[in-house]
C-alpha cells in the first residue's frame, strides 16, 4: 500500500523578544517593498529549478543536479513554484524581489539556518488572508535546510540539549520558560534536568529580566558543539547548575505507554505521542499491542506536544484506535488543492491504513504488516495550542467516522493544511498546498478544536478544560490533564475546575520548537511514503 503523506505545522519563533504560535523569527513586514510588480510567474518552476547562486551554502545538498545560477534565479523559482502549487496562489501579495531585505549575501542565515534573502522573500509572498478569529490564515508555510529536514523526518535527529521548552512568558520582564520534556539519553537527561524545571540563568545572564538577548538566544537555541552554563530552579529543591554541550539528539516520539486505573476501577490505556516521524511507526504499533493485551476499556491519547508529521502515521494510528469495522467504507482524509491542480483534486482520498509498510531494497512498499487495533468507540485526546496538523487530522478523521472524541486541555492550533516539501538548491520549501476534509466532508477548523462543557459543534468538542501540570510527570494519574481525562472517562463529568467554553480555553504555554516539527506533509519521491 503506497503512502506519501506527512503533516507539518508552524515554526515557533525562538527569539526571546516575541515568541508565539505561528510565524518565525525571520518573518518580516513587506509593506515598504510592496509595489505594482507583476505577480505572474515568468516561467515554469521546473525550468527554473536548481539554478543556484554561487554563495548559497546549501547548493551541494540539493536533491537533484544543480546548475550555475543567481540569487535572482532562485527567487524566480520561488515565485513560480508558489504560482503553481500554493493553495492561495491567487492571493499572493505583490512584492518587489529586488528590495534590500530580499538581497544581500546568501551566507546570512535566519534562525532555521536558511539564507535570509530566500526566507524573507518566501515569507513576504504568503497570503494576507485571515481566519474568522482574525488570525493569519497562513501562519505555517516555512523553509528549512533539505539535509536537516531529511534527518529529522526519517530518524528523529534534532539539535540541542534534548530539552523541550515551554514558554509561559517570553517577554521581559519576568520571562518564564520551563522544561516540558527531556529526551532520554540526551545531555539534559544526563545532567539530571527534569520536567517542570524553570530556566533561571543562561551563561550568567538572568533569564527572567536580562537584556543580553544575544547571550540568551545562543544558550537556548545552541549550535552543536557549543557549551553553555544553565541554572534551573526546581520546586522544593535547591537550584541546579549544569554545563550542557549541544549535540545531535534522537527524539523518542512515543515516550510513555502505560495502563492506569480510572476512578471507577477500569483499565485505561495512556499513550503519549509527540511526533509523527518515520521512527514512530514501530513504537506506536508496540504501544497499541501492549494496550490491547491489557484489554483496556478506554484510551487517553496525549497529543499536548504533538505538532504533526507524516499523514500516513496519523491514518495508521486512527485505524488502530477505531478498528476495521468503524473504518469500513470510509476514508481518512481527502486532500483539496488549488483549482489549477485538477489531477491532484481528482486523486483518491487517503484511506485508513490497516497495514504498516515493509519496504523492499529499493524503498517501495511491496508488502505490509497488519496493524493491531483497540476497536474503541471513543477516545480522550489531551490537546493544547501546541497540538497541530497531523494530530488534528486524527481528531477530525475519527469524528468523521463517528468515534466519540472527547477533548481534554485547551484549543488546538488550527491547521487543516499541509505541504509537500520541495527542494531547490539545498533548501526545502513548505508552502501550504492543500487542506484536508474528513469522511463527512468537514475540514474547516482554521481556529482549531476546543473542549466545551456546553453543546458540541463542529469545532467545539465535548470535554474538559485543563492546564498543563508541569509539576507532575507525564503519565502520572494526578497530573492535571490526565486526571481530568480519567475522571471524565469514569463519570462523564469534568472536575469542578474544568468546565470550559471555547472563549475560556487558552493554551497553557508555547512549546519552543521549529516549524519542521509542526506539520502535515506529503513526502516527495517514489518511495514507501
SSE layout and pairings?
Layout: E1 6-8, H1 45-48, E2 51-52, E3 67-68, H2 71-85, H3 116-124, E4 142-145, H4 146-155, E5 157-160, E6 163-169, E7 176-182, H5 187-190, E8 198-202, E9 205-206, H6 213-220, E10 227-234, E11 237-245, E12 247-250, E13 256-261, E14 267-272, H7 280-293, E15 298-302, E16 309-310, H8 311-322, H9 324-327, E17 331-336, H10 342-345, E18 350-351, E19 355-359, E20 365-370, E21 378-383, H11 390-400, E22 404-409, E23 417-418, E24 422-424, E25 427-430, E26 434-437, E27 450-452, E28 460-465, H12 480-491, E29 510-511, E30 519-521
Parallel strand pairs: 2-3, 14-15, 15-21, 16-30, 21-22, 22-28, 27-28
Antiparallel strand pairs: 1-16, 1-30, 4-25, 5-12, 6-7, 6-29, 8-9, 8-10, 10-11, 13-14, 17-18, 17-26, 19-20, 23-26, 24-25
Helix pairs in contact: 2-3, 7-8, 8-11
Briefly say what this structure is.
With 529 residues, the protein is of the alpha+beta class. A hairpin with a 2-residue loop joins strand 24 and strand 25.
